[in-house]
Amino acid sequence: MQTENFRSMNSDIVLVAEGEASQVNVGLVTAQKFIEESEKRFTRFDEQSELSRLNRSAGTWFSASPDLFEVVKEAQVYFQKTNGLFDPSILPHLKNAGYVHSMDEIRRNGSAPQTDHSSTPMISTFASVRLNEKTSSIRLPADLQIDLGGIAKGWIAERAACLLSQYVSSCAVNAGGDMFLIGYPHGQDCWEVGLEDPRNPSSDISVLLLQEGAVATSSIMKRSWKQGNVSRHHLIDPRTGQPATPPWLSVTVLAPHAAAAETFAKAFLIADTDEARSLGEQNPELTVLAVDKNGNLISLAQARESVHVFH
Amino acid sequence: MKIWKKIIRIWFTFASLFSFLIGWAVLAHAPKPNQFNPARIQSMPQLDPVPSLDQVMLSGNSQTLFRPSQRRMILRSGGS
């Protein structure tokens, strides 16, 4: 089993692959290149990125690359499926909470800047974003800007894993906890994935034995900062425009696709008890685990045909 | 030739009838199979129902399914 570690998308990236050595090396290089190019395309912290150009074009049609078009299209699907709890149009609220620089930069500075909370309220919603399949064009309403941070990392991890799998017999791509697994390590019938303890990130609260597919975790502990004396984190509740105050420290979702796992992890973290139950019933393919403030691991939803085993 | 045909017919008729009667007699005197008797069935022990994952977790016995790891995993999911 060969591994490659590097930093991209303000996250630790781990590529794991098994197969014929020369092919594994080619596959790892190809996957890493794809991830780094995707970061340049989807970051909102670079004025020249394609996402920044899309946001500047709000109110007009924007000719998008196939990758950006596909991610925005998937974002619309999961906006609907999560009943609006995953919402890429919370960008102004994120900025108000002080998330105006990359997380690495905020950590270097020690705190986030105070921002103007009296921004113009948005009237449009993410549902009003229009897509033209024929011309691969996107039209954002004039008063709407989007952040794809809640879906792009999972989507990139899955695409990178699919690319890597063309060269190797089995592989995994982990993008800061959002990962996609293809095949199995030699002689095994599952992948072992450590579930990080949100109260103590250096230790694991449990080990998940996973089948092929995706796993993603959202945590209010990871991307958090101080804005003045107030603690902030990046998981904005779209209903209030403020960082969510959930009963959970983290939520982990197992799903067939990484974009689903990542978006539902955010949705389940933000959802109240009734909404979480409803989301679980509407999406029986998901397995959802939450860690509460006392470190207890709780199952919020269990896929009916799940073959996931835990120990 | 006609007389031989008649003799062979009579021979087959009597041989078939004789074989049938012999088979009947043998089966009539063979031991009978066991008859179904509900009283002879042994009662099965009562088993506790297997708890669901939710029940196990809510009862606080989650350690049987979720065990803290002692070693460092290559793949870890901790939130983004």
Question: What can be said about this structure in brief?
Answer:
Chain A is an alpha+beta fold and 311 residues long. Chain A is built from eight helices and 18 strands.
The largest beta-sheet of chain A arranges its strands as 1-2-6-7-10-15-16-17
Give the strand tally of chain B. Answer: 1
Mean pLDDT of chain B: 71
Number of strands of chain A: 18
Number of helical elements of chain A: 8
Poorly predicted regions of chain A are 305-309
Query: What is Rg of chain B?
Result: 38 Å
Label the overall shape of chain B: elongated
Structural class of chain B: mainly alpha
Report mean pLDDT of chain A, rounded to a whole number.
Answer: 87
Q: How are helices and strands ordered from N to C of chain A? A: EEHHEHHHEEHEEEEEEEEEEHHEEE
The outline of chain A comes out as globular
Word description of this protein:
The complex is a heterodimer of chains A (311) and B (80). Chain A is α+β, with helices and mostly antiparallel strands. Chain A is built from eight helices and 18 strands. Chain A has an eight-stranded antiparallel sheet with strand order 1-2-6-7-10-15-16-17. Chain A has a three-stranded antiparallel sheet with strand order 3-5-4, with helices on one face. In chain A, strand 6 (170-175) and strand 7 form a beta hairpin. In chain A, helix 6 (152-165) packs antiparallel against helix 7. Chain B has helices at residues 2-28, 53-58; one strand spanning 75-77. Chain B is elongated and about 105 Å long. Chain B is 41% helix and 4% strand. Chain B contains two helices and one strand; from the N terminus they run H-H-E. With 80 residues, chain B is mainly alpha-helical. Chain A binds chain B through residues 1, 3, 11, 14, 16, 153, 172, 174-179, 191-196, 198, 201, 203-208, 215-219, 221-223, 250, 252, 262, 296-299, 302, 310-311, and chain B through 53-54, 57, 62, 65-69, 72-80. Strand 8 of chain A pairs parallel with strand 1 of chain B, so a sheet runs across the interface.
